[in-house]
Amino acid sequence: DSVDGPAGPISPVRNRILLLGVLVGLAVPGVVFLMILFLDTRVHSRKDLKGAVSIPFLGEIPQDKKTAKTNVAADQEDSMLSESFRILRTNLLFMLGDPDKKVILVTSTMSGEGKTFIASNLAVSLALLGKKVIIVGLDIRKSGLNKVFRIHHKEKGITGFLSAPQSTDLRSMILTSEVSDNLHVLPGGAIPPNPTELLARKSLDDAIELLKKDYDYIVLDTAPIGMVTDTQLIARVADISVYVCRADYTHK
Q: Across the chain, which distance is largest between two alpha carbons, in Å?
């Protein structure tokens, strides 16, 4: 019998190979993308926060590398960064409501999230309203206010009053800020050997009550709450707590 068959090859089938290639080409990137989503533990946007917590969202602060070098940016009237702090300030004052509530605690999960940057600029923004504002460095293990406000005397600060309230004049340790006449700074002071026990003393309550008589708002720059227990002790004197998260840095 003579040879008889199709003109083209029986195997492989061209259309089947092309279809399989298209499916694999779609499946592999899809699997990789899903793995990235499942393994990603960072907060990236406002949506990630709103889906995780039910507490009020105060505002978003854009990243500005130019003003980040100067640390204090809220006094620049026309900048987008300054406007974002105005929005944060307005929402925060609405949350406080009562004029007698004036102690604002600022914290975050871990170091590097911009907690001190937010606290400093928030204090400057409040001072621009004509209010008397003091920012207190209660991150006494590693104070960041000394660098922001260029304070060289690290041995003088609130830790001296907390350890010996009877023999220490708290007001003598308060410094005037170069940014605004309405803004004063109370540094953390020398690093104590027992920071947690020091913050648990009644002398912290006495210090805050003393500052309330002289200032309209008191901003507390505290330690990261995810690393030490200090901030939980300080929270007893605060009227409102501001929790700072940083995009692409804070873990969900």
A: 119
Of 196, 216, 206, 204, the C-alpha closest to 103 is: 216
- DSSP, collapsed to helix, strand or coil, labels residue 148 as helix
CA distance to 67, 113, 142, 155, 250, per residue, from 90 (Å): 22, 22, 30, 35, 25
Instruction: Estimate the crossing angle of helix 80-96 against helix 115-127, to 10 degrees.
Output: 80
Query: pLDDT per residue over 45-98, tens digit each?
Result: 888 887 778 888 888 888 766 655 545 655 556 678 888 888 999 999 998 888
Residues 6+ apart with CB under 8 A from 135: 119, 120, 123, 145, 183, 184, 185, 186, 218, 219, 220, 221
Structure tokens at 178: 């170069």
**Reported pTM:** 0.80
Contact predicate 152/143, CB 8 Å: no
Q: pLDDT tens digits, residue range 100-127?
A: 888 999 999 888 888 888 998 899 889 9
